[in-house]
Amino acid sequence: MKSSVILSLIALLFFPHLLLSSPLDPIEPSQVLPRPLILQFTSSLEEPDDSTLNQLRCDSWRFAAEANNLAPWRVVPAECGTYVKEYVTGQAYRFDLEMAARESLIYARTVEIKGDGMDAWIFDIDETLLSNLPYYASHGYGSEIFNSQEFDAWVEQAIAPAIESSLILYEEVRALGFKIIFLTGRSEGHMNVTIENLKRAGFLHWDKLILRGANDRGKTATSYKSGKRREIEEEGYRIHGNSGDQWSDLLGYPVSSRSFKLPNPMYFIP
Amino acid sequence: MKSSVILSLIALLFFPHLLLSSPLDPIEPSQVLPRPLILQFTSSLEEPDDSTLNQLRCDSWRFAAEANNLAPWRVVPAECGTYVKEYVTGQAYRFDLEMAARESLIYARTVEIKGDGMDAWIFDIDETLLSNLPYYASHGYGSEIFNSQEFDAWVEQAIAPAIESSLILYEEVRALGFKIIFLTGRSEGHMNVTIENLKRAGFLHWDKLILRGANDRGKTATSYKSGKRREIEEEGYRIHGNSGDQWSDLLGYPVSSRSFKLPNPMYFIP
Fold this sequence. Notes:
Two copies of one chain form a homodimer.
Chain A: H1 3-14, H2 17-21, H3 50-66, H4 81-89, H5 91-108, E1 119-123, H6 133-137, H7 148-157, H8 164-176, E2 179-187, H9 191-200, E3 208-212, H10 221-234, E4 238-244, E5 258-261
Parallel strand pairs in A: 1-2, 1-4, 2-3, 4-5
Helix pairs in contact in A: 5-8
Signal peptide (chains A, B): 1-21
InterPro entries (chains A, B): Acid_phosphat_B-like, Acid_phosphatase_pln, APS1/VSP, HAD-like_sf, HAD_sf
Protein name (chains A, B): Acid phosphatase 1-like protein
């Protein structure tokens, strides 16, 4: 056996990948791993312009936010600031809010209301019943870091307007016979301004208004709100519907029979 | 007292609303309910054209589907057929898939992998790892009623291509040391064709492949899949991540530490 052949065999023993990586050796078809079968997009050859590309990226970011795929985030990505502003001040946000309300009502009408007054629907408040859009309009629509002092000053004015589709839903759900429970991340110190604001915006009657108390400090919204849902169920209520703009309004045990996620690309609460 | 005044007082006693409803009486400002404060959209005066309106409606429908707000649905609404086709064959679907994979990987890299081989990531198969888009392309992209016989014939060809971003994610997650569990709604009768298809699409290694067995018949996907997650946890696995295109892949007890919802506007599985 020639020494070059022996050396080649020794080399192959320790570095078998050389066999495949040498550009000189012919490779038998059976040695090549077949290229995996991968989905081809029919339009993948078109190169979108920068503006379209940014729109697509921000659409994807918004989808990921609304599907709860994102890691906790503090501000809207810089490149999506204008996108979010145009979305929330435009038709798209209103359409999305109306669709959420419409689907909620379709479901609410299918629920059998027992005569015992324990059929409940939970509503979050901010960005669910009341809109803080006037505040966010002067704070970059979510592209600035949240300033709790400035936001508190806004809350204390008690002038947040109603989201119209939610006001209509609230009235319809109440008329169907549901008990109305407002469950908010606002603190008990804001009880009076919250009541004042709710009434001013047309939310005149409710069965419970639950705010964060001293014992709820430091809890995530998911933990605080699911804990309150547990208490509500322990009182005997059946929670049929739950409306909120944050997944932390809706997730955690126990969950409502149906949950409705209202759109909100401006901020994230864990 | 004049008789007309007495009559008025009697009338008022029985019909107090007359006081407010008479168009002749002047009404004090304090008697008028204030108009509730309602959010005004800055662009609400612009009337969108029919094409923009349909786009907005279908965007809202897709958002509602992806946020799990819709009642169970069997077909894409007729007016959104073209919209869904353009979405899934275009850049937007690919971008959304890539964003879901990217966020999954960001999270996966933060997980501490213990040396005991019990850190798991669950993947659904259809529309998560493998794409049935070639099938749906010849079946109206979700606008036709699902035909299980025709779909089974497609599945048995074992030629569904990989979703590229999911293939990359799968490889990265495996390289990080996660145990890979495939949990699919496909039936055990399709085990061999599923294995053949997975390998052809580049998914070469996994730790478990769970298909619907005889005992799982008639269960919803939510019930079947959460039941399997319970069994997986009872075996000692820690389920850190769960990727699926249906909420029924992700919801129900126990839930994964993080869940990732891939886009799918073509069909709904309860």
